[in-house]
Amino acid sequence: MVLLLGAYAAFIIALLFAELREKRSAQILLKPLAALGFLFLALNFGALDSSYGRLILGGLIACAFGDVFLLSRNRTSLFRLGMLAFAVGHVFYIFAANEILRPDTSYLFISLTTFLGLGTGVVTFWKLKPKLPRDMVWPVGLYTLIISAMLIRSMQTDMTGLHLLILPAALLFAISDIFVARDRFVTPSPKNAWVITPLYFGAQALFALSVLQA
C-alpha cells in the first residue's frame, strides 16, 4: 500500500509542477495518468467487493472523465462536460454515503448537518455569482447544490473504520471545486494549482482508501 500511495503522490507532485510552470504537454500526459492512479488505488483496495465500494468506484470513474474534459482551458463546451462529469461523481459519492449512514441519527443532528452543508453552499454561490457569465449561473448553482448534498451526507455517515475518510475526502473535494471556480471565473492563475491539485487528488485517494473496510 505504501508503495502504491508513494507512486501516486509522485504523479501528483509532477503534475503540480507542470501546472505551475504551464507545461501543457506534460499536463496532458500526467493528469490522465494521475486519474488512472486513483482508479487503480480503488480497485487494488477492493472497490468491487461491496456496494459501497462500487459506488465509490463509479464516482472516481466519473471524475476521471472530468479530469480529461478539463484539460482544455479554452473550450466552454468541454468545461461544461467537465462540470457534468464531476457532478455525476458527486452524486455517486452521495449514494455511497447513503450505504454507510449512522443508524442512530437524531433530528437535531440531521438539521445541524443540513444547515452546515447548505449554508456553506449558499455562501459560496452568493460570493461567486457576481463573477459568473449569465449562461453559467444556473449550472454553477445546481452544481453547488449537489456539492452541498455530498457534504451533508458525508457528515451523516457512520465514521467506522476507514469509512471516516469519506468526510475529509468530501471536504477536500469541495474546497478544490471552489478554487477551480475561482481560477475559471474570478482570478485565473497557475498559482491556484497549489490548492486545486493536491486537494482534489488527495480527496480521490481518500475516497479510494475508504473502501478498504467497506
Overall geometry comes to: globular
Main sheet characteristics: none
Helix/sheet category = mainly alpha
DSSP strand tally: 0
List unreliable stretches of 5+ residues.
none
Q: How far is the first residue's CA from the last residue's CA?
A: 17 Å
What share of residues are in beta strands? under 5%
Q: Give the H and E element order.
A: HHHHHHHH
Estimated helix fraction: over 70%
Oligomer: single chain
Radius of gyration: 17 Å
pLDDT averaged over residues: 94
Please tally the helical runs, counting DSSP H or I stretches of 4 or more residues.
8
- The structural domain count equals 1
What does this structure look like?
With 214 residues, this protein is mostly helical. It has one domain. Helix content is 75%, strand content 0%. The chain is built from eight helices and no strands. The radius of gyration is 17 Å and the shape is globular.
